[in-house]
Structure formats: structure tokens, C-alpha cells
Design brief:
Blueprint (H helix, E strand, L loop, with lengths): L6 E6 L10 E4 L11 E3 L5 E8 L7 E5 H14 L5 E2 L2 E5 L2 H6 L9 E6 L4 H4 L7 E5 L2 E2 L3 H9 L6 E8 L2 E8 L1 E2 L3
Length: about 180
């Protein structure tokens, strides 16, 4: 079946469906028995794979962005498995209150490292509890979700430059990304 759907959000997460969520929200009909089909734009290009409907809110569906789907397909074809990058840290949003406590009032973005597990890429790369990660592979950290996606989408074994603030000073680290075990 074909329906006209409006995309009402991109990058949707916190839906409780998977660990790493990045869905396109649409009102295109996604019904039991016909989900999994393409989400197509007005130019006839596939932009997503319809996946699931919201448990609450009639007529709201979610699609996996085509770029993400194609990366997964390529990994499955190449190696038969999907690997996600892993650091081994606990993180939280850097808030104005935390910035004041850590005496970093000008820090408007980034994530606070609140835990570093032993024998992990983070520990081996020099990341410490209390560090504020402000850049990952040259890209600014917007929030914890953004950071999790950056790490998860990194090729396992790649060395990534990570810029942190520690004790009021910027510092650059080079961390080899590990493999997230499921």
C-alpha cells in the first residue's frame, strides 16, 4: 500500500526500542504485515526503512535512516556481523551547574565522564573520571546521545583523537576504539 506521510522528526531516540536509536518519525502508515518497506521522498528516493509504530500515539511510525541501513547491510555482506565501537565509560550531560562545580563556566557542550571501567579503550587511552569530552574525531560533542552514536559508529580498532578538558585545561588524547560485546 502507498500512503502520503509527513516526516515530523529525525534523529528520534529514547523510544525504548534499541540501545542506539536514530529513527525518522513519520505518519506514513506502518501496519502489521506491511512494515519493513521503504520510506520514499517526493523524488522517489528511498530515505528510510519503515520499522515500527509507536505504542502510544495513533498513526506515528518510525523508519531506520537509509544511510544507517546501508552501513549495516555492507557490514553484514563483508563480514557477516555488525560491530559497534566501544570506549568503556559512563557519561552524563555537561550542565551549567556541573560546569560551575568543575570551574568551567564557558563550557556549553560536551559530556562529563563519570566512570571509566578498568581494562577498556578509555582507560588505556588516558581518559579519566571527571574529564569533559568536547570533541570526538574532530567533531563537537552535543550531548550524551550524540557521543554514544559517534563511538558506536566508529570502526573497531580505529585510533580516534579525543579532545577533553581536565583541570581547566584542554588536552588531546588518541584512543583506540574497542568492540562492544553484546
Amino acid at each position: 500500500s502507498v500512503t502520503v506521510g509527513v516526516i515530523s522528526a529525525v534523529g528520534r531516540s529514547d523510544l525504548g526500542i534499541t540501545t542506539y536509536e536514530n529513527f525518522i518519525q513519520t505518519d506514513a502508515s506502518i501496519n502489521p504485515g506491511n512494515s519493513g518497506g521503504p520510506l520514499i521522498n517526493l523524488d522517489g528516493k528511498i530515505i528510510g526503512i519503515n520499522t515500527i509504530t509507536a505504542a502510544v500515539g495513533s498513526g506515528i511510525g518510525f523508519a531506520i535512516p537509509i544511510g544507517m541501513a546501508m552501513r549495516i547491510v555492507d557490514e553484514l555482506i563483508d563480514s557477516g556481523v555488525v560491530e559497534r565501537g566501544w570506549l568503556g565509560v559512563g557519561i552524563q550531560q555537561m550542565t551549567p551547574e556541573l560546569a560551575a562545580i568543575f570551574e568551567m563556566p564557558n563550557t556549553k557542550s560536551g559530556v562529563l565522564i563519570n566512570a571509566v571501567k578498568n581494562h577498556t579503550p578509555a582507560k588505556n587511552g588516558g581518559i579519566m573520571r571527571g574529564d569533559v569530552v568536547i570533541q570526538y574525531d574532530g567533531k563537537q560533542i552535543l550531548n550524551p546521545k550524540n557521543f554514544k552514536h559517534m563511538v558506536a559508529n566508529t570502526v573497531v580498532g580505529k585510533k580516534i583523537p579525543i579532545k577533553i578538558i581536565r583541570d581547566g585545561y584542554e588536552k588531546s588524547l588518541l584512543v583506540t576504539i574497542g568492540k562492544l560485546n553484546s
